[in-house]
Amino acid sequence: MLLKHQHPSNKSIMISVLGVPNAGKSSLINYLIGTELSVVTHKPQTTRNKFHCVFNIDKTEVVLVDTPGIHKSNKEFNKRLNEQAREGCEGVDLNFILIDLTSDVMPQLNSIKETLKFELDKTWLIFTKNDLVKISDELLLEIFNAGKQLIPKIEKYFSISSKNGENIHLLTGAICDEAKTGYHLYPDGDVSNKNERFFVTEYIREQAFLLLNEELPYEIAVVVEEFQDGREDETLAKPIVHIAASIIVNRPSQRGIVVGKQGAVIKEIGTKSRAKIEEMLGCQVNLNLHVKVTPGWSKNNYVLESIGLHRAVDSNRVWRSR
Ligand SMILES: Nc1nc2c(ncn2[C@@H]2O[C@H](COP(=O)(O)OP(=O)(O)OP(=O)(O)O)[C@@H](O)[C@H]2O)c(=O)[nH]1
Ligand SMILES: [Mg+2]
Hints:
Elements: E1 11-19, H1 25-33, E2 51-57, E3 60-66, H2 76-88, E4 94-100, H3 105-116, E5 123-128, H4 137-150, E6 154-159, H5 168-178, E7 180-181, H6 196-211, E8 221-229, E9 240-249, H7 252-259, H8 264-281, E10 284-293, H9 301-306
Parallel strand pairs: 1-3, 1-4, 4-5, 5-6, 9-10
Antiparallel strand pairs: 1-7, 2-3, 8-9
The structure holds guanosine-5'-triphosphate and magnesium ion (MG).
Magnesium ion binds next to helix 1.
């Protein structure tokens, strides 16, 4: 959209959504934007890349930056996840720190402060999952004040639930009040800065996360190898998109687990993720999934770059590109 064509009273705000793994970042974002765009599972470290999720309230555009959970780790892969969260704070107008009320609060704030390694600017605390824990207003205020000692730019707090929507109207009202007059970054109808291929990998990884056990979800990556888009092809009776994607694993023994007995597991990953991909693309999808063994992929710069995880400020070493 050309800037000069925008309404003069348009308002815009960009907000980073930060928190430890599983704090409820993606759930809150999905609740606010009103679709299941971002992948949510009960397992920590579901989100791996920072990305924009966009919604409008009247003339106000709200850009929420989903980020991976912030956590201390010496592993190269996790350091790059933290880097995504750091980058997610760049250029934003406001930061949300989500605090999971079902876990100890101060360790979450300490972990975020220490891992980010920089002072956050304007920040609001968002206590999540308040449908699961009842905490008195006095205690919330006490935690808020303790949070301010650690992160001085914390200004406000909200206690919300992304399950039953409690207090989310207060949050959206405050977001609108905070937004300043300015041009919208995205044309009406755009929901993200990531393309369809990105969400294809996310929806496949979501099913792998849900269907695989123990450490295996953390040992896989998904890459789209082919994306033949027949939606604009008028010679086809029915539009269809052909997608070939690889599930990358670390060890040969993991291939068998992902494939499953007579291919049962990979078939289920494919069937379930295809349904969500078809909904997103709005047409029939032919999804071809393969398992590829790439030993040590999570330390391999080439693979990490290909899934959008760039080197971190504290990266372990310079890895060869291939
Ligand atoms: N009861 C309840 N559960 C919630 C709420 N918000 C999130 N959850 C659950 O908490 C789990 C983690 O939610 P996510 O939204 O994936 O958390 P996240 O912070 O994005 O996690 P990572 O991407 O792994 O860092 C899921 O099982 C959600 O259903 C809430 O307000 N109430
Ligand atoms: Mg998430």
